């Protein structure tokens, strides 16, 4: 029987790469995101075995997603939490609306998707991979809310790993640097003061590769997540793995 993975944020840059990687690895892939029509199109194109549109900022919606998956597959072997948003700005002018969005999507949704999935993962002795960020390891200028959300995801993952270890469920986080995705383009266009290229260059300037610096590719993140869900990684739990070209190595 094929193992089953649930991927949140399945329509995003990292989420789509996850779906492709797990599908290529022989897994049954179930995705969730906000856009029902786009999810149906992905399923019709054979990129998803199953899909359920939901606003996973609501705990009840998280339970609905898992119930829909189990009604079709009868099992769940891995959860990969990819859903995330970016907002930036100085704390003194940061809006409550943006703060709530960042914390609700990045942290609350991740927490309650784990909560909803744990009973099924106990049955399969499965795995959880939460996508955190280099901003969960170190402070990033002008991004206090995002750093707060991702730092919480990283530490929550470690706590879950301790809680779930007796049941044989592993829980790890991945902390990418800047990944070449639509979210990164959104950042540059919204916060680049009309010059996205300069915004990109400012991001790349922090990488130790100098002129050879590049953004991380979504497939690189997906490859590492896929590995963490395999039996060969059965000794890895409670880890936060950086995939950031070394940007956090000195911090």
Largest sheet, order of strands side by side?
3-2-1-4-5-6-7
Give the C-alpha Rg.
17 Å
Helical amount? 40-55%
Outline: globular
**Helix/strand structural class:** alpha/beta
Main β sheet profile: 7 strands, parallel
In total, how many beta strands?
A: 7
Q: What is the oligomer described by this structure?
A: single chain
Number of helices: 8
Please indicate the count of domains: 2
Strand residues, percent: 5-15%
Q: Which CATH class of the largest domain applies here?
A: Alpha Beta
What is the arithmetic mean of pLDDT? 96
- The CATH architecture name of the largest domain reads 3-Layer(aba) Sandwich
Which regions are unreliable across 5 or more consecutive residues at pLDDT < 50? none
Sketch the topology as an H/E string, one letter per element. Answer: EHEHEHEHEHEHHHE
Structural write-up:
This protein has 251 residues and is α/β, with parallel strands linked by helices. It has two domains: 4-179 and 218-243, Rossmann fold (3-Layer(aba) Sandwich); 180-215, no CATH class. Helices cover 46% and strands 13% of the residues. Helix 4 links the parallel strand 4 (78-81) and strand 5. Helix 3 (59-73) runs parallel beside helix 4 and helix 4 (96-124) packs parallel to helix 5. The longest helix is centred in the middle third of the chain and has 29 residues, at 96-124. It is globular, with a radius of gyration of 17 Å. It starts with a strand and ends in an 8-residue tail after the last strand.
